[in-house]
Design a protein that fits this description.
By secondary structure, this protein is an alpha/beta fold. The protein folds into two domains: about 210 residues, no CATH class; about 300 residues, Alkaline Phosphatase, subunit A (3-Layer(aba) Sandwich). It has a seven-stranded mixed sheet. Strands 1-11 form a two-stranded antiparallel ribbon. Helix 3 packs antiparallel against helix 7.
Length: about 550
């Protein structure tokens, strides 16, 4: 072959060449976000690229070549946007969070991910359509034989290597594989082929899990062994259970921050004995879905089954004689759409804010309307808190208080706004003659201006406020909560149902408390891994 012929071949297939190189670069970038650079990374990135290329080639002579090119471009754009915004390839936890994201959060986050996603999608659509057009004219390879060989290689090689190595993925996956082969592959394929290929297996695993959850909704739930209701008169008539969002305690002046972000909490702490706040509280996970799955039920980072067959925090309240409310500033989930949806659906009464842009202060009138005298009530307020985008979580009052200077000022103003919500909630219960208590914590923390749900990084994603406010000093909450501090002098939000259970009058055995403390040494990550909190790198 002379130089002239080679130039003609390259010219005739320029988009095919550009496409292959671009796909390989994307596949390798995603792979390197999971594993370090190695021959294995290059090899599997090439296989990942070849698989996508062969799919395009197989359909290049059909009428669906253009729609298929657009779909592939969209999936790659999603994968690259996730990498750009989260710093890692799409994994099970991120996919589940995306599928369960409420409309308000999606709208809020759109300014962060839409520009990157749109640019990638348009560029790839053009290149892929041009590539399929070039492949349409080619008839020099037996494309279907090649496709069959490659597909077999794609799935057999990693499975063989994983079984041979006896790696952790295979050990974890074996149990799930008994009921779902898709989950078995979803523990292996995403690491090998994170570009597009993994998306289908992760989705199949998610749907399999949700099917299991759906089938368990109507199964009678039990209390864990070691918990029982006891006769107790000194319990609050009103419990206002407030769930924050993406709230990092180091940005609270109550916890020592240098800006006055929590003036109400500070004043209550300095001038009364009605407030107790607790240091070294950490969340069970660094994203909402699994953080609340664990903190609102008897599940733990190591044991998810307890979510399905044991009672949750709303059940506890009802069994203790409380009327239950779920008041949320996040979109309504169906009773089997998500972990939060399952729990909220068990409440006797519910309210979900319908506005696209929502202010947590607007929940206070709903709270006031729900409160009734001479009735035990457990009322959950689920806030939007400090979730990205921060500039939608505060108003002019917060700006007047804190100004507009500083790298984290928008986040700080969102914390100030939450402080105002707590002030209004306290003002509401403080007028009651009955014993009332506010229990406030956040689902997870935040690496400010970066986000959360990123594995193996930043303790700030887990460090959360834990605050209890009473309208009169009737209960020694310190004696309850301090029992749940672990051997590292930390308290994990997996202890939340146990603590609230004791507040409501339940008795918890010492052995169960010790187990809860041991479980609390670990955290659950978006990639499905469970690790000691001490392993997190700041």
């Amino acid at each position: 072959m002379n130089n002239s012929e080679l130039k003609n071949i390259i010219k005739e297939n320029k988009y095919t060449t550009i496409c292959f190189c671009l796909l390989f670069a994307f596949a390798l970038l995603l792979r390197l976000s999971i594993k370090e650079i190695s021959f294995s990374s290059i090899f599997f990135s090439l296989l990942n690229t070849a698989f996508i290329y062969i799919v395009i080639a197989c359909f290049s002579k059909t009428i669906i070549r253009i729609p298929l090119s657009i779909i592939i471009a969209l999936l790659i754009a999603i994968d690259i946007t996730v990498l750009y915004t989260c710093g890692e390839a799409l994994n099970y936890g991120i996919l589940a969070s995306i599928l369960e994201t409420n409309t308000e959060e999606a709208y809020s986050m759109s300014g962060l991910y839409l520009p990157m996603g749109a640019i990638t999608f348009i560029l790839l659509s053009f290149i892929l359509i041009k590539t399929s057009n070039e492949l349409k004219k080619s008839s020099k390879i037996n494309i279907y034989f090649t496709a069959l060989f490659l597909i077999l290689s794609i799935f057999c090689i990693p499975l063989f290597l994983e079984i041979k190595s006896g790696g952790d993925n295979i050990n974890v996956a074996k149990e799930k594989a008994k009921s779902s082969i898709s989950y078995f592959f979803a523990r292996i394929i995403p690491i090998k082929y994170p570009l597009i290929v993994s998306d289908f297996f992760l989705y199949a695993a998610y749907k399999t899990d949700m099917k299991t959850i759906t089938s368990s909704v109507n199964i009678p739930k039990q209390l864990p062994q070691g918990i029982s209701v006891k006769t107790e008169s000194n319990v609050p008539e009103k419990i206002i259970f407030i769930i924050g969002e993406s709230s990092y305690n180091a940005h609270y002046s109550l916890y020592g921050y240098n800006l006055n972000t929590t003036p109400f909490l500070d004043s209550l702490n300095n001038n009364s004995n009605l407030l107790n706040f607790y240091n070294n509280a950490i969340s069970s996970a660094n994203y909402t879905r699994d953080a609340l799955r664990i903190s609102l039920s008897f599940a733990s980072p190591q044991n998810g089954q307890a979510f399905l067959d044991k009672k949750n925090i709303v059940h506890l309240a009802e069994d203790a004689g409380y009327e239950t409310y779920w008041i949320s500033n996040q979109s309504k989930y169906g009773p089997v759409d998500s972990f939060v949806g399952i729990i909220s659906a068990t409440a006797q009464n519910s309210y979900y804010e319908k506005k696209l842009r929502r202010d947590d202060l607007e929940l206070i009138p709903v709270l006031k309307q729900a409160l009734e005298n001479d009735k035990k009530q457990f009322i959950t307020l689920h806030l939007s808190g400090s979730h990205m985008m921060y500039d939608e979580r505060y108003d002019e009052t917060d700006t007047k208080a804190l100004g507009s200077d500083g790298k984290t000022i928008e986040y700080d103003k969102s914390v100030h706004h939450t402080d105002r919500v707590l002030r209004e909630a306290f003002s509401t219960i403080n007028k009651a003659h009955q014993k009332a208590l506010i229990y406030y914590f956040s689902d997870h923390g935040e690496q400010v201006n970066v986000g959360h749900s990123i594995p193996n990084k930043w303790k700030s994603q887990y460090q959360v406020p834990l605050i209890i406010i009473q309208n009169k000093p009737f209960l020694d909450t310190n004696s309850i909560i301090c029992k749940y501090y672990d051997s590292r002098s930390r308290i994990n939000t997996n202890a939340t149902p146990y603590i609230l259970g004791e507040i409501m009058g339940y008795s918890i055995t010492d052995s169960l408390i010790e187990k809860t403390k041991r479980d609390g040494l670990y955290i659950y990550q978006a990639d499905g891994s469970v690790i000691p909190f001490d392993n997190i790198i700041d």
